[in-house]
User: What shape does this take?
Amino acid sequence: MIAETGLAALWLAASLALLQLVLAFVGLKGNKPDLLAAVRPAAVAQGVLTAIAFALLITLFMRSDMSVLLVATNSHSAKPWLYKFAGTWGNHEGSMLLWVTVMGVAGAAVALFERALRRDTHMATLGGQAAISLGFYAFLLFSSNPFARIDPAPADGQGLNPLLQDPGLAFHPPTLYLGYVGLSVAFSFAIGALLTRQVDASFARAMRPWVLGAWVLLTLGITAGSYWAYYELGWGGWWFWDPVENASLMPWLAATALLHSVTVLATRDALRAWTVMLAVVAFSMSMVGTFLVRSGILTSVHAFAVDPTRGSFILGLLALYIGGALALFGWRIGAVREGAPFELVSRETMLVINNLLLTVILGLVLIGTLYPLMTEAFGHKVSVGAPYFDRIAGPIALALMIAMAAGPLVRWRKDQTRAVTKRLLIPLGIALLLSSLVSALAWGRIGILPFLGLVIAGSVGVASLAPLWKRNLRRTPLFTYGMVIAHLGCAVSLGGMASDSAFTVEKLVAARPGDTIQTAGWQLRFLQIQPIAGDNWTALQADMEVRRNGAPVTIHPQSRFFASPPTSTSEAALLTRWDGQLYVVLGEEVEGGRWQLRIWWKPFVTLIWLGGIMIALGGALALLGRERRGWLMKWRARAAA
Amino acid sequence: MKLILLLFALIATPLAAQTALPPAPYADQQLADPALERKAKALMETIRCLTCQSQSIADSNASMAGDMRSQIRERIMAGEQPEAIRAWLIARYGDWVSYEPTAAPILWPLWAAPLVLLGLGVLLLRGRIKRKARSS
Amino acid sequence: MRTLLIWLPLALFLGFIALFASGLFQPDDRIIHSRLVGQPLPAFTLPAAASDRPPLASSQLATGQPRLLNIFASWCVPCAAEAPQLDALKAAGAQIDAIAIRDARPDVDAFLKRNGNPYARIGLDARSEVQIALGSSGVPETFVIDGEGRIAYQHIGEIRADDVPMILDRLRAAQ
Assistant: This one.
């Protein structure tokens, strides 16, 4: 019954989306307020229904209802409850239902909470949201039904991939999806504004919090995913420039650019066409990412749905929505007047530079990711990997960091070159100091990019605090704090990346119990190897006593074996200290009772993710600050009346 | 979701698909000379694993990746230059085996992309910025 | 100029769609062929992999008659699955030598006892060195070597029953 109810809820939600689209379209076309009045309730009901459908699927997974095909193929009754729960979205159909749910709930939120937008644009936006939802409902209902039954029901399920059996699964995909799909709101806003020809500052002010919200979640999702890959893959890497990772980075790059251009539009009523374009591009990148992952046209993706039917379905949606949006853009944007040109030395110009560099990085990641596909069409197989992206995107990202540090120190409209230079004097001095320091310490031992990374991280970190300099800290608005923290987070993260690639010490040894290993100031005593049993796995565990001029700590790297499906994984042991992480992996038995160990000391590597969290926190504060200001103004207006 | 898929695809090593033989001597043993080891490691990070298809041999558990690591370390130790080893591998497996795109003509557009994009961007930017008056 | 810029994104997008569609409808075979096809075999000398078969060196593959060089391993499941096809090829007159990858003699002996032994010579490549030198990317693979010791053809994956006539044709063509 539960599965049928879920399916019914989905069908109902899809019908409501159709109704919502028609109501908005006819209402706006014929100027019929009574039709438009029904659009918001329809959006809210649609959101509630998708949430119900998703909750029901979770229930099916929690109950291990093996008569449902999806549960039978992806779950197992002997799995810990957390993985039954999170396993709901650890597969194609479940994650698409999550996608649709986020879209529905986001649409409901826009219907309920959006007050700043002009009414007709609001209605057009909700119509747009309904239109894109419809395509994904169709995808779900016609080619990826999560509620399909299987008869006869198997005795037990096939289990969830052991690599996914990690708390990371409970947090990373939902956050990433909230961000990914949250960008659909920005997309719908852009469509709405194009339809009603309202591309102006007030539109930008209304769109900004939604972009910020999606961006915060996207940032958190990527940060969490990176850390998860870092400890789960067992080779100490935290970003591999894999097509699948690039697919999650591209929407983030677009959203980051959008976040900044929308500020220019809100403040100076300029960059209109560009902002609308970015809003379209950001969600397009979400869809392109989904397509690349689901269609299996790029290697790395082969384990999931290498299903041409699904691939063509998403490609169809992509062509329809993005092609439609770009056509609408071409058709309507000609009428939108561009603002006056900017002064060379102004905040606007800095933000445009930020947008330019972010877009170039986005373009390079896109081209690099798709290049193998293009050459394949000519019968030539190539690989584009980390060496290319590091070398090409790295320097541009560093330039972007410098622009990021300088931007907030330049005034809107027009500023004096000399004044800006003066404000940048301290960070420049620090950069000089750091360069000589790092050169003295590590010149010749570290690459040029890590060297520049360290220097820029330090000086940009200081420069990012400069907007608070000589200000009354208690009267500084919350969104300024948000910006400062987010920018500081970028510097912190960059510092972690540079430090990791410059100073990581690797030690590979084959050791037998009783041996002591010395590396990077650490002493590791290999005590013993013992078998242990977990919830649904068994493992060989190494017990190691680790010390660095202090009390010893015991760590336990494991090699795990899962029965359903039969797979082995290695669980790295991570020891976090203020100045870095010790990362120990237990490998295979070599010979003569010796075990392969991989040991890394990674100075300040944790800053990478700390920085990511700071960036998200900064975004959240900025969102809160803007919203609170709105509430205050409304409250005052009400009090005055 | 995306990273999950990555994990899915990359390291789920099915049991019994690998050999029981111990790894080659230098698969997971560093060279004594740190400078040579750095050289070898840098090369390994740019060579694509053949059996896993989406990882470099520097971070793959596949046995063939281990054999390739061992071979690279041994050849570096014997004095061979990393680029010579890369060329040797490319002669066998094609450009595909190198994560670092080569200078083959089909890859020229890829290397030109950053310049083209930056140039386009600056061109666009010029339209947005007021020409400075000569005086100030 | 502005009109051009306005429609540029759509044009680019259509290009991407075409690319995606071509990727979708001509799926990547994900098979990496050796670039040495058409070139002489790299020189190698391998110890014997089985108790009752002589070792293998590259010089022994240039005998004036085309031969098959099968790359297999005792731990590889598809290798066992292709054994009947190798027998059929041998029955049709093909000369087959083999290289066992990352293997040990007792394991190879047991494997051959179980699955039959169509091989004339078997070399042991314990560290995949010759496999890499050949540009082979997995097991099983089968190379057609012409009479002068040049690689004429590389078959990747197990030989299915309907591949047998094609392999025989390749052998004849390499004459």
Q: What stands out?
A: The first helix of chain B runs from residue 2 to 10. The beta strands of chain B are 13-14.
